[in-house]
Write a structure and sequence with these properties.
Elements: H1 2-9, H2 12-50, H3 57-67, H4 73-85, H5 88-102, H6 108-124, H7 131-148, H8 156-164, H9 167-172, H10 176-188, H11 194-204, E1 209-211, E2 214-216, H12 219-226, H13 230-245, H14 251-264, H15 268-276
Antiparallel strand pairs: 1-2
């Protein structure tokens, strides 16, 4: 349509000039417009995945190189999300997100003090009847510390398990009943039934119990069962949907996205797919 309007308004030589102009500058214009749109997405991705709106350091260099490739727009978005999800800033932000939800927002400095205390108890109480507990508590803290400081990377599901299986969480939710009720609320968004509570208490106290049709007899078994069933997958869709879109998903959206949880067992791919839906 534009072509025919221009064709009537200009001479043949003028028309050639218009065509040449578009051929030369249209790609640059489209590239500039793409950059503006990508900047909007990058800011949203950065806030969601790192807690910061401005990207610096190695991630900035990587994202700049992604933007300047000849890849299509959707591929660039995917690669930018991958870059931010794999960054150390993302590890630290995941700690803050889960910390807010499960540990009442303790500071990183407080966590480091707990890590130091846990090491002291672990290293000096070898003859204590609670030594196994001190050992496990220190091990949990150390894995969290290594993850947020660029060491061995944990999945979000592994991180969730560690962040509720330590001394700090036990102090916030004192007693076995409170532990079971809190972990149910944190990971599947509801309180346990009477039967689920009874069976869960058996499991975490090293007795045989049945939860979600699976048998367990330890605290580790309990967390593996709780964070490995359909209700956990479903609630992770709700949890991360709220974080990204600030609203609850519909039943249809839950059904559409729960497969990403079923596939991997941890929310990383789910989060990526949700971010690709950001407009």
């Amino acid at each position: 349509m534009i072509y025919y309007v221009v064709r009537k308004c200009v001479s043949e030589s003028g028309m050639k000039f218009v065509v040449m102009f578009f051929l030369l500058f249209l790609p640059k214009l489209l590239h500039a417009l793409e950059g503006v749109v990508l900047d909007k997405y990058i800011k949203k991705y950065a806030i969601t995945l790192t807690g910061k709106s401005i990207i610096e350091g190695a991630e900035l260099l990587i994202i700049d190189s992604i933007i300047n490739t000849d890849n299509d727009f959707q591929t660039k978005r995917t690669e930018i999300i991958d870059c931010l999800q794999n960054s150390n800033l993302n590890r630290l932000h995941v700690f803050y997100e889960l910390n807010q939800e499960y540990l009442e927002g303790i500071s990183l400095e407080y966590f480091y003090r707990e890590l130091k205390d846990a090491f002291f108890l672990y290293s000096t109480r070898k003859n204590s009847i609670y030594y196994d507990y001190f050992d496990k508590n220190y091990s949990s803290f150390l894995k969290i510390y290594e993850n947020i400081n660029g060491g061995n990377r944990l999945t979000i599901r592994e991180f969730q398990k560690l962040i509720v299986d330590n001394y700090v969480y036990d102090q916030i939710n004192m007693g076995d009943n409170n532990f079971v009720i809190s972990t149910f609320q944190h990971f599947i968004g509801r309180k346990p039934t009477k039967f689920e509570l009874e069976q869960s208490l058996n499991i975490i106290n090293y007795q045989s119990g049945i939860l979600f049709n699976k048998i367990g007899s330890s605290k580790e078994d309990y967390l593996n069962i709780l964070l490995g069933n359909k209700e956990y997958w479903q609630y992770q869709v709700i949890f991360w949907f709220r974080k990204i879109f600030h609203k609850d998903p519909t039943e249809e959206e839950i059904l559409n996205y729960i497969g990403y949880m079923r596939e991997s067992g941890s929310p990383e791919k789910l989060i990526k797919e949700l971010l690709m839906e950001v407009k």
